[in-house]
Structures are given as structure tokens and as C-alpha cells.
């Protein structure tokens, strides 16, 4: 099942499937490591419509809920 990154709960890991946003933001996210099949873990879940922290490629990235909704993920394969 594919769902938006903002639905990932703290401590959960998923893999990036697709980015559905404006090209300039998609390019920025790709430079940060948001590429297909890349594992991503939610480290800290912010309140509704605030910033959450995600670990990807060994880096901690803060994303607004609006941007996290534009990154589609699925449960990571074991």
C-alpha cells in the first residue's frame, strides 16, 4: 500500500516510492536523498500541520506536513 510520508508514525520506516510536487521541490528533495526505494524513518512526529523529522541516508531532515504529503512511501521490505 502506498501512502503519504506524513502518515508515517514515529519510529516507523518506509521506502520512498514517488514524489508528487512541483519540479523545483522534487529536485530539492532528490538532492536530499528522497529517491525511489530509499528507506526513510520518522524520528519525531510533529503536531498536525507542523514539522516532522525524518532520517534518510544518515541525515536528519525536517519537513513541513505539506511537503511530507507530497512524498509517497510504502512499508519497507524486511
Description:
- The longest helix is centred in the middle third of the chain and has 10 residues, at 23-32.
- With 78 residues, this protein is of the alpha+beta class.
- It has helices at residues 23-32, 65-68, and strands at 2-4, 13-19, 39-44, 51-56, 59-64, 71-75.
- It has a six-stranded antiparallel sheet with strand order 1-6-2-3-4-5.
- It has one domain: SH3 type barrels (Roll).
- The chain has two helices and six strands, in the order E-E-H-E-E-E-H-E.
Please describe the structure with a list of short key phrases separated by commas or semicolons.
18% helix, six-stranded antiparallel beta sheet, alpha+beta, SH3 type barrels, 78 residues, single chain, 6 strands
Helices and strands in order, then pairings?
Elements: E1 2-4, E2 13-19, H1 23-32, E3 39-44, E4 51-56, E5 59-64, H2 65-68, E6 71-75
Antiparallel strand pairs: 1-6, 2-3, 2-6, 3-4, 4-5
Q: Supply the CATH superfamily name.
A: Ferrous iron transport protein A (FeoA)
Strand order of the largest sheet: 1-6-2-3-4-5
Radius of gyration: 11 Å
Number of domains: 1
Query: Looking at CATH, which topology would you report?
Result: SH3 type barrels
Percent helix range: 10-25%
Please tell me what the overall shape is: globular
Runs with pLDDT <50, length 5+? Answer: none
Per DSSP, the total helix count is 2
In terms of structural class, how would the helical and strand content be classed?
Answer: alpha+beta
Order of helices and strands: EEHEEEHE
Distance between the termini: 15 Å
Looking at how many chains there are and whether they match, the oligomeric state comes to single chain
Question: What's the CATH architecture?
Answer: Roll
- Assess the beta-strand content as a share of residues: 35-45%
Amino acid at each position: 500500500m502506498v501512502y503519504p510520508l506524513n502518515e508515517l508514525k514515529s519510529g516507523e520506516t518506509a521506502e520512498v516510492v514517488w514524489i508528487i510536487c512541483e519540479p523545483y521541490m522534487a529536485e530539492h528533495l532528490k538532492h536530499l536523498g528522497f529517491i525511489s526505494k530509499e528507506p526513510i524513518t520518522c524520528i519525531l512526529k510533529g503536531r498536525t500541520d507542523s514539522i516532522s523529522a525524518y532520517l534518510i541516508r544518515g541525515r536528519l531532515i525536517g519537513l513541513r506536513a505539506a511537503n511530507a504529503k507530497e512524498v509517497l512511501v510504502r512499508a519497507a521490505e524486511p
